[in-house]
Design a protein that fits this description.
TIM Barrel, alpha/beta, 234 residues, 9 helices, eight-stranded parallel sheet, 44% helix
Length: 234
């Protein structure tokens, strides 16, 4: 596949996603401007990131540090906002703090402390979202809903970090609308204590409509943008 063909393929995917987001916004009585689209480019090359940037996408999401750090270096000239959305071990905090503008997967005080220390060391401020385990099972990442306020307070009180809001993935086998309605309640409780923490990161290729209906502000879209072709990493 030539790069021109690939750019056209991504442009078509982006147009389709934008149409779906616009329709979801109409159905929910919301403005498109309330939503930020994050292109999830895991397993795809830096050249795809460049195509997305040329098409006007300004937010990129990755879930593995090794891959994300390399792409962030390769695309440093593009002025993109980099979102780390995967589970994060504390020993990767130093690396992630060098390039991530937003970390979506903050779920425990120890990680908060590690990220804050590394953000200060790097002279940066990182926006953190508290990941919520909507199935109440933190083994797969996320804080239990009852533990979210304490994690949010820890982020808000840590130098180098800014509390942005919450993030969640709809549990497998559950109706996304029900899951995202619970996330909306958790988000509201966080905002009551921290009024500026208005981000709700929810919704992927298969459930963006339900996420928009339940107040999502950030959508994490991969497959619908980049397709099912066999991925490769440069």
């Amino acid at each position: 596949m030539t790069e021109t063909t690939r750019r056209d393929e991504i442009a078509a995917g982006l147009a389709e996603v934008e149409a779906r987001v616009a329709e979801a916004c109409r159905a929910a009585g919301r403005a498109r401007e309330e939503l930020t689209l994050i292109a999830v480019t895991k397993t795809y090359p830096a050249s795809d990131v460049r195509h997305l940037a040329a098409l006007g996408v300004g937010h990129v999401g990755e879930n593995r540090d090794q891959e994300a750090s390399a792409k962030a270096r390769d695309c440093a000239d593009l002025g993109l906002a980099w979102h780390f959305i995967g589970q994060l071990q504390t020993n990767k905090a130093r690396s992630v703090a060098r390039y991530a503008d937003v970390v979506h997967s903050v779920d425990r005080p120890r990680l908060v402390a590690a990220l804050g220390a590394e953000a200060v060391r790097a002279g940066r401020e990182i926006t953190c979202l508290v990941q919520v385990a909507l199935d109440d099972d933190p083994a797969r990442g996320g804080a239990r809903p009852r533990d979210v306020p304490a994690v949010a307070d820890a982020v808000a009180g840590t130098g180098g970090l800014r509390l942005g809001g919450v993030m969640a993935v709809a549990p497998l086998g559950e109706e996304p609308a029900r899951a995202f309605a619970r996330l909306r309640q958790v988000a509201q409780a966080v905002r009551e204590a921290h009024p500026d923490a208005g981000i709700i990161s929810a919704g992927m290729s298969g459930d963006l409509r339900e996420a928009v209906a339940n107040g999502a502000t950030h959508l994490r879209i991969g497959t619908a943008l980049l397709g099912h072709r066999k991925p490769f990493v440069r």
